[in-house]
Every structure is written in C-alpha cells, then in structure tokens.
Amino acid sequence: MNKEKLRQRFLRDSLPVRLGGLAATLARVSSSAREAENPVIVSGLMDEARYLIEWTAAEAEPEVAAELVQTQRLLTLWLRAWNAAHADRHQRVLLAAQAKEWSDKTLQYSGLLNEDNPKRIL
Fold it and tell me: What are the sequence ranges of the domains in the chain?
C-alpha cells in the first residue's frame, strides 16, 4: 500500500464518500476475516481502515468521530493479535462480525443510504 498516494486520492472525496469508502474497507475486512487463506490480506485491510479513519475523523461530527476513533482503537488491538488470532476460526468469525457491524454503522453515518442524498447508493 502506498500510504501517501492513498491519502491524496482519499482526501479528494467528500466526507460522505470517504465514510462510504471506509465502510467498504471494513466490509472487506469482514469478508476476508472469515477465510483462513491469507492473513496478510486481512491485516493490510485493517491497517488501511485505521488510516482512513485517521484521515476522516477530524472532519466528522463529534459523535461520529468518537465512534470512528473507538473503531480505530479496536482495529489496532485486532491487528496486534492477528498473527495468533487468524489461526482460530472462532476469532476470525468474531472479527468478521465486528467488522460487519463497524461497516454498517459507518455506512449509516455517511448518509449515502438516505433517499434525499443525490449520491445515494441504490
């Protein structure tokens, strides 16, 4: 991952689109965590999500920012434990469920699902 290139590209988007992108990354964490094939993919996605939160939280409403920072903390804990956790199916399922919940919340925060949003996701 080229962090600077990702940051520049990511920051071009509006806050709702960035939150939608973060939600998509968290959804990929969820789906990838269920599989035991390549733990490096999951750790890379968790790392990416932490950066996306770093670049987004400061512009979000205070309540949303607090939730994002909490998610970032939990991702950091998962990342530290991932080398051991990825071998345990129950741990993978737990991360997958948690990441899905984070993704769903973040997508709601984005407003991209609202009917009056011109960038609404169908």
Answer: 3-110
How far is the C-alpha of 6 from the C-alpha of 29, rounded, in Å? 17
- Terminal Cα-to-Cα distance of the chain (whole angstroms): 30
The reported pTM is 0.89
Q: Do 112 and 106 touch, CB atoms closer than 8 A? A: no
**3.30.43, 1.20.120, 1.10.4030, 2.60.40: CATH of 3-110:** 1.20.120
Distances (CA, A) of 15 to 5, 65, 82, 115: 18, 12, 30, 17
71-92: pLDDT as tens digits: 999 999 999 999 999 999 999 9
Q: Which two tokens stand for residue 90?
A: 């129950």
